[in-house]
Amino acid sequence: MKNVTDSFVSLGHWPFAGSFGFNTDILATNPINLSVVIGVLIFFGKGVLSDLLDNRKQRILNTIRNSEELREGALAQLEKARSRLRKVEMEADQFRVNGYSEIEQEKLNFINSTYKTLEQLENYKNETIQFEQQRAINQVRQRVFQQALQGALGTLNSCLNNELHLRTISANIGMLGAMKEITD
């Protein structure tokens, strides 16, 4: 800044040419013109430039503040999302564990049910076999009894004559008569 004021001060030391005209010496006129333009710009533009810089500074500060607020909001949302993710992962793990335990429980229930069904079928089979054996035994008994009865009747009929037969009948009638008297 001191150099610029020195250039204005040094203008007073230059000798005047005596008339108004154009100076065609480029090396002498350019520093003078530049120093005048820079001086005018500094004098008149200082307020405008400082206002522009202040406005720019305020916009930058506002942008930084907004960015910080957005960053804090984004961090809060990120933390919420992480919290929800942790919660969902825990629930998924719990569902997975519960699902596996339910599957195992269903598997055990199915196995137990199958064993019970097999036991019932085995019991039914055994009962059926026992029933069929009993029925076969009864049929064999009836046949043996019938054959024994027929054999006994055949033996009795062949061995008994009429007189023996009449005595047996009389004895049986006598026994029946005695039984009737006892019951009366």
Automatic annotation (TrEMBL):
Where does this polypeptide localize?
Answer: Membrane
Q: Name one Pfam family in it.
A: ATP-synt_B
Keywords, A to Z, come to: ATP synthesis, CF(0), Coiled coil, Hydrogen ion transport, Ion transport, Membrane, Plastid, Transmembrane, Transmembrane helix, Transport
Q: How does it sit in the membrane?
A: Single-pass membrane protein
Regions crossing the membrane:
32-49
Q: What CDD domains would the database entry show?
A: ATP-synt_Fo_b (cd06503)
Gene Ontology cellular component terms for the protein in this record: proton-transporting ATP synthase complex
Its chief place of residence is membrane
Q: Record's InterPro entries?
A: ATP_synth_b/b'su_bac/chlpt
Q: What GO terms in the biological process aspect are recorded for it?
A: proton motive force-driven ATP synthesis
Instruction: Show the GO MF annotations.
Output: proton transmembrane transporter activity
Q: Which residues form a coiled coil?
A: 64-98
Similarity annotation: Belongs to the ATPase B chain family.
User: What does this protein's UniProt record list under function?
Assistant: F(1)F(0) ATP synthase produces ATP from ADP in the presence of a proton or sodium gradient. F-type ATPases consist of two structural domains, F(1) containing the extramembraneous catalytic core and F(0) containing the membrane proton channel, linked together by a central stalk and a peripheral stalk. During catalysis, ATP synthesis in the catalytic domain of F(1) is coupled via a rotary mechanism of the central stalk subunits to proton translocation.
Q: What is this protein called?
A: ATP synthase CF0 B subunit
Q: What organism does the UniProt record list as the source? A: Penstemon gracilis
- Name the gene that codes for it: atpF
